Amino acid sequence: MQALVIVAHGSHLNPDSSTPTYEHADTVRAVGAFDEVKTGFWKEEPSLREVLRTVESDDVYVVPFFVSEGYFTEEVIPRELRLDGWDVADWDSDGTSADHAVYTAADTGQRVHYCGPVGTHDSMTDVIVRRAESITGDPNVGDGFGLAVVGHGTERNENSAKAIEYHAERVRERGRFDEVQALYMDEEPEVDDVADYFESEDVVVVPLFVADGYHTQEDIPEDMGLTDDYRKGYDVPAEVDGHRIWYAGAVGTEPLMADVILERARDAGADVGDAVEVVRERTRKTEAAASGSSAAGD
Question: Keyword Nucleotide-binding: yes or no (predicted)?
Fold first, then answer.
């Protein structure tokens, strides 16, 4: 038997923080790639410390639903899961290249395939692009558009900035968008000045966050000038300094994120069959249907 455990931060203050984790777990569960699919949280139940006790399988693939490598993926999660012999050097990572390593859970005896975070996986680039497609309702969006990938910045987590630039560069190399820029909340170039960094009239802004919360729902919309009070809401697209800003919200809420989770586990040796392809096709159809329904109601 093989199990998948998706581990995330969660929140005591924001009940919606864990919603994407549950939704992606449901998507993976529905394709039947694992005998068990569980979720565990730092700030919610089931806790990271207890989640392995809810799993019957001997082989467990643990995928951190985090944007970057850092304190939680390198210290908190391995400690709480009690991974015997954990050493971050086993990932052999430069800050964006963590893959996986195998350990024994000290108290349960399970073999744990501990994966790198979803946010640094190469397929996250596809999710960022899909997010742009979803918010614009255009599966071919790119020509005439700029794309901003937004993160915290180095004052909070050095590797967070690395992840942002990594994916921005990967999108840039594809040549799909006229302009691609990495922007930050806590350092230059700042998302506050988004209009200053693009010549394109239309700009899609995708925050590289796993869930919508204080930063993505309040700080960033107000900082960009989409609204002077997030409680009043804002238009999509919104006019800002001669540009149309298509604000997409947290990338982690995109249904295709389930694919990244599956790919992380597959890279670590999990037998997922054709689940990756199935999820990509299902999420594409679901989003197309949702877009059609929205258009019909306009």
Answer: no
Average pLDDT value for residue range 187-200: 94
Domain containing 192: what range? 124-253
Q: Please say whether the beta carbons of 64 and 7 come within 8 A.
A: yes
Ranking 79-83, 172-176, 230-234, 267-271 by mean pLDDT, the lowest is: 230-234
Asked if 81 and 106 sit in the same domain, the reply is yes
Quick one: 76 and 147 in the same domain?
Answer: no
